[in-house]
Write the structure tokens for this entry.
Amino acid sequence: MRTDEDKLPSGDVIRDLRKERGLNKSQLARGAGITLGALWKYENGRVEPGRAMVRRLAEGLGMDPVELERSISAAQRDGEAA
């Protein structure tokens, strides 16, 4: 199991975008067609979403999947530089 120090940066991106859009976890999970448990794992950096899941999350967030992928990639690069 990952510790907070091992947390994947994609989780912060997903959570921040959800909050910026005024969505609660249930709304995003429903919009993405996933369970709350799955969303929890992504937002808490326990699991890295694959491309298909990024597309589903982007749909739930009402954004272009490419934009979400870029945001996640940028966060990963920033995390490696830290």
Q: What stands out?
A: Residues 4-81 form a domain with the 434 Repressor (Amino-terminal Domain) fold (CATH 1.10.260.40). The CA atoms of residues 55 and 65 lie 5 Å apart.
